[in-house]
Design brief:
- With 118 residues, this protein is α+β, with helices and mostly antiparallel strands.
- The protein has one domain: 2-Layer Sandwich (Translation Initiation Factor Eif1), CATH 3.30.780.10.
- Helix content is 19%, strand content 29%.
- It contains two helices and five strands, in the order ββαββαβ.
- The chain has a five-stranded mixed β-sheet with strand order 3-4-2-1-5, covered by helices on one side.
- The relative contact order is 0.24.
């Protein structure tokens, strides 16, 4: 299990402050669940800062949670610079596990996470 511990600074796209909280913004991170079929569910994480290396976060989430995942672009919600927002999509109901991962690695504060779903 020791090889599943990731230092926080590897998720920064810019290594300016490797030991500080990564997401000190006012925006909320939304973790949602969607029902795909009768028993299959999909968890989406949106609202993470675009300055984070979302590919590394996705890779770490897939490894720690033992699930599949993808990085999708959301064309409906645009960033202030005009680029499309990125959404992390995970297979299964990973709401609480994803929240624990994001808070333990100091990517988001626990009060900045909103969990939606049943």
């Amino acid at each position: 299990m020791q090889n599943l511990v990731f230092p926080t600074h590897i998720f920064n796209a810019t290594d300016e402050h490797p030991n500080t909280l990564v997401n000190p913004t006012l925006s909320k991170v939304h973790i949602r669940i969607q029902q795909r079929t009768a028993k299959k569910r999909i968890t989406t994480i949106e609202g993470l800062q675009q300055t984070l290396d979302l590919k590394k976060i996705l890779k770490a989430l897939k490894k720690v949670l033992s699930c599949g995942g993808a990085l999708l672009s959301d064309d409906k919600n645009l960033q202030p610079d005009g680029s499309s927002a990125l959404i992390i999509k995970l297979s299964g109901d990973q709401r609480t596990s994803a929240q624990t991962f994001l808070t333990t690695h100091n990517l988001v504060e626990s009060n900045d996470i909103v969990i939606h779903g049943f």
